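Contributing: when you submit paired examples, paste them exactly as shown. First protein:
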Amino acid sequence: MASNKYGALCAAELCATYVPPGGGILVRGENGWLTYCPDDDPALGPRRYSADPDVSDHEPMVAFLHARLDEEEDTAGAAGVTHWRHWPARSRRVVDDHGELVVACSLRDVAEQIATWGPMSAVANIEARRMVLDLYEQAAVGPARAAHREAVRALVMAYRDHVDYDTAWTLRNRAGG
C-alpha cells in the first residue's frame, strides 16, 4: 500500500489541510491528481472546524478579529477558492486547478509567493486563526486562558493600522523582564 512519506497539504476539494507523514487516505483531488486526505483517516481522528462566529457575542478584541477575518475570507472567495500552482513547474506563470492562467510574473520569486498564498491557502490560514479564537473563548479562566489571550493579541496586532484597532491590544514587554 502506498504511504504518505513526506507530509504535504491535501489537494482534495476545499481541504488544504496539512497531512503529516504516514497519515491520510489516498484520494483523487479536484484537479485529478492523487492526494492524501486526512478527512477519512481514522488514525488522525475527526477533523475539527471552527465555530460559527455569528452564534455568540464576543469581547471587542475577538469581534474585531472576526470582522477582519470575514473581510479576508470575502476577498479569498472573490478570487475563487482553488489551488494555485506554477505551470510549468518553477516558472513565472501561476495557474489554477483548471489550468487557467492566474498571473504571469516577471520574477519567479513573485510567482512563487502568489502560488503559495493563493485562495485555498488564504482560506486555510483564516480557518486556523478562527480556531485560535475558539480555543481562547472555550478555555477556562486561568493560566491557559491567559496564554490563549496573548496568542489572540498577537494575531490582532497584524491589523494595528486598521482604524478600529485598540492600542490596548498591543503586546508589550513586561517592565523589568
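Second protein:
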Amino acid sequence: MRWVFRRCARGSDELRDLDVYDIAFLAGGAWRVADSAIVALNRRGLLVVRASQVRTVEGELPGHPVERRVLAFCGRTRSVEKVRADLHRSIEIYEIGRRLAAWGLVEGANRRVTRSGRRHLEAAGRDASIPEYVLRGAASLLDAPAQRPAGHTPAAAPRPRPTPPRHRGQSSTTGRKFPRLDVDSGE
C-alpha cells in the first residue's frame, strides 16, 4: 500500500519536460551540471577556457540560473576546479536535485537515479538536440579532433635532448661514479 501511495504522490510514469541541466544532473550529478555549464558558456562565446583557467567575456546574460552563477563567480579569471567546486555546492544545483527528487527521478541523500529517471535519460539520449557532453561528460569532447582557430599554425614539437652517454660504474640518475666492487675479493 505504501508503494502505491508513494507512486501516486510522485506522479505517474509520464515523461516530464527537462532542461539540459536536469538531464546533466541525471546523467552525472552536480559535477556533470558544472561541466556542462562551463562547456555550454564556452561554446556560446561567453566564457574563455585556457589551460585550467576560466575567464568571462562581455555578452548576453544567460537565462538559466546555473549559467548566471558561473558568470557571476567568474568575474575575473578563476581556475576551472574552483568554478566546478563553487557550482557543486551552489543553491542552483541543489534546487535541481530537490526538484528532480520531488518528481521521483532521483532519490536518497546521494540523489541516486530512479527507474523513472533512467527512462528520462534514455529518452534524452534519443533526442538530437541534447549535446553529447551533457550525456557523456566533458571528457567526450576529448575524443573529437582538436579545432584550431583559422590561420593558426601549430608550434613545432620540441626536439628531444640527447641522452648523455653513461660509463661503467656510473649512476643513471645522478651521474655520480660509484666505487667498483669486485665480486671475488680472494680473501
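If you have annotations for the second protein, write them as plain sentences, like these:
The beta strands are 47-50, 53-56, 78-79, 106-107, 112-113.
The mean pLDDT is 76.
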